Amino acid sequence: MGSVCKCSCTVTANPHAHLSSMASFVRFCSPILGSFLGAPLSSGYRVPQCVWHKGFGRCSVRSSSSQDTSSAGEKVVLHIVNQDGMKTTTQVTEGESLLDVVVNKNLDISGFGACEGTLACSTCHLIFDENIYNKLGPIMDEEMDMLDLAYGQTKTSRLGCQINIQKWMDGMTVHVPQEIKDRRSE
Amino acid sequence: PNKSAKSPPRYCGGPPSNRKSQLGLALFLNLLSRSFGNSVHRSWRLSDYCSTEVGASHTGRSHCQSRLDIQVDLFERLPVPFGLVRFGVAPDHPEVKNVINTFTQTALHERCNFFGNVGVGKDVSVAELRQAYHAVVLSYGAEGNRRLGIPGEDLRGVYSAKDFVGWYNGLPGNKELRPDLSSETAVVLGQGNVALDVARILLSPLDILKKTDITQPSLEALAESQVQRVLIVGRRGPLQVACTIKELREMVNLPGTMPDMVTTDFEGVASVLKDLSRPRKRLTELLLKAAQGAASRQAGASRQWGFHFLRSPLEILPADDLTSTAGIRLAVNVLEGSHEGARAVPTGEVEELKCGMVISSIGYRSLCIDPAVPFDHHKAIIPNTVGRVQTGAGLYCSGWVKRGPTGVIATTMNDSFDTARSLLQDIEAGVIDVYSVKPGSRAVLSSLDSRGVKWVSFSDWEKIDKEEVRRGQRVGRPREKILDVAEMLRVAHS
């Protein structure tokens, strides 16, 4: 791809990819991709560092993990499995949210982060391994309100915009839920 | 027009032979959609096919189709895009509108064109579009509303939620609504999220509203409003409310208001809580808490809101002048069955409530915009199979006109992905003949020009956008929407 990915990502293709990989043909052109098809987006788009403080929107977003910034900047290894089963391994920075990660790493997840981290949608829905999930800290009412509307919600689901990377998450895997309903069900 | 002059770039690697056959094929596949509502918008994720990804698909063996450039043209009736994100989402929900940034980036893609102020079915027919494009996707939503079908429905003071919401959100067709806000009690029929939006806007403190993009005339009207009490009436019980918890929470937390509900309506509810799914359980718990008055009362709360259950509208009662609303007569129901499937059955008992305004929020309804397109008048949708309309190849639908008018942005987004997938499958299978040459927008625009239709490009919309933001800044608001199509066009073509 012509796009520039600044991290050291490795992408492993799933040799058993099936028809639903057709969906990956069609890329989601959105501001969450730092550059689209090699052409940088206009500078008018601002990188959402602190999306929940923009404008006069209700600042109802709270970080679910601790406010600890004492070791901000440390690198952590993260694995993300997308809807087609493809795993991406990337280095992320302590303190950034999983929404930030998807945005900054140009990860191609359909419709991810539509409301830009303001707890007004459920498109940053991610599934965690149980041992990780149990350590993630309390979930606020506002997050659960939106998570309850998400497709494919599981017992270990959270909204990515509410989870900040911490050192102990080194090596964790998150899964993008199967938001695509079975086409044969129609 | 905002078309880029350069040819679509090639990004993916792949065997040189693929590239050669690609260039030879005049693959200018034009896809078109009727409206720029969020559903279709989300389905147009444009790209070249990467030959490596075609390899991964078990059907993608056709090398000729390995690198297909898709051109998407969007036709929208209004000069402005975004549909319900602009005209349906409440003014005090600006974060829900963030998705506009995403849509804008898609619209700015060089293979995507926006043509506003073009009415499909009026300025150009679906048949003409099907001749001009390889595929047509209809995603024009639901601009009608379900009628109550009761006497008094046409009295002054009775409005559909669609019109009321359109009024405070600046939909040009609702500019002249002038709702009557002079009585103390308003009744909203329906208990979905739209009903809650209406109640909330009626009761919100002005301090909150005046920082939003609500229209100036609506703000002024609401400043004079005498409405102090809003009853949100539903046919069934607390376990069947269609609204979601975020919206209910907003009502509970609305400054200057307090809940006013009849706790007897909640008999038996607490005992079934444990059997409910988590979303329904949490919603019901909050409703119960509000009804029991345990929810925090706001200091100085003078306005009230409440759910009124097990009531169906029978008649809207006129005042002495015989033209305005004085009250509503309701049938009292019992429930047969339980949970989502419960049915409301009239008991024969009747209740009358005094009110000066009735807002009917019982659902939107799609319209048939072109007789050439099959339409199910009973369900008010276009009959389809996973988005494919059965009138020969190349016609699709997505969003509310496909499934019916329910669902949040994520629902409609995923639905449009489904339609896009059907379309891509049809390309792969050769059902859509991508080798035929189609004129695309060239043909359509020349017809429009000959008919005197002044279409609006995306960069023209950006002029409207800038002007609205500029006017808003003058009064400390995010934007001041232009309420008049003629003025939109004037700004667009200035």
From TrEMBL, chain A:
Quick one: a GO cellular component term? mitochondrial matrix
**According to the lineage, what is the superkingdom?**
Eukaryota
Localization: Mitochondrion matrix
Alphabetic keyword roster: 2Fe-2S, Electron transport, Iron, Iron-sulfur, Metal-binding, Mitochondrion, Transport
- State the SUPFAM superfamilies in the record: 2Fe-2S ferredoxin-like
GO biological-process terms attached to the record: cortisol biosynthetic process; P450-containing electron transport chain
Q: One GO molecular-function annotation for this sequence?
A: 2 iron, 2 sulfur cluster binding
**Cofactors required:** [2Fe-2S] cluster
Q: Where is the 2Fe-2S ferredoxin-type domain?
A: 74-180
Q: Which InterPro entries did the record assign? A: 2Fe-2S_ferredoxin-like_sf (IPR036010), 2Fe-2S_ferredoxin-type (IPR001041), Adrenodoxin-like (IPR001055), Adrenodoxin_Fe-S_BS (IPR018298), Beta-grasp_dom_sf (IPR012675)
Similarity remark: Belongs to the adrenodoxin/putidaredoxin family.
The name under which this protein is listed is Ferredoxin 1b
Automatic annotation (TrEMBL), chain B:
Q: Which domain of life is it from?
A: Eukaryota
Q: Which biological process, per GO, is one annotated for this protein?
A: cholesterol metabolic process
> What cofactor(s) does the depicted protein rely on?
FAD
Recorded family membership? Belongs to the ferredoxin--NADP reductase type 1 family.
Q: Where does FAD bind?
A: E76, L84, V120, W400, G407, V408, I409
Spell out the subcellular localization from the entry.
Mitochondrion
Tell me the organism.
Paramormyrops kingsleyae
Keyword vocabulary terms for this entry: Electron transport, FAD, Flavoprotein, Mitochondrion, NADP, Oxidoreductase, Transit peptide, Transport
Task: Give its E.C. classification number.
Answer: 1.18.1.6
Protein's pathway: Steroid metabolism; cholesterol metabolism
Tell me the first and last residues of the signal peptide: none
Q: Name one GO cellular component term.
A: mitochondrion
- What name goes with this protein? NADPH:adrenodoxin oxidoreductase, mitochondrial
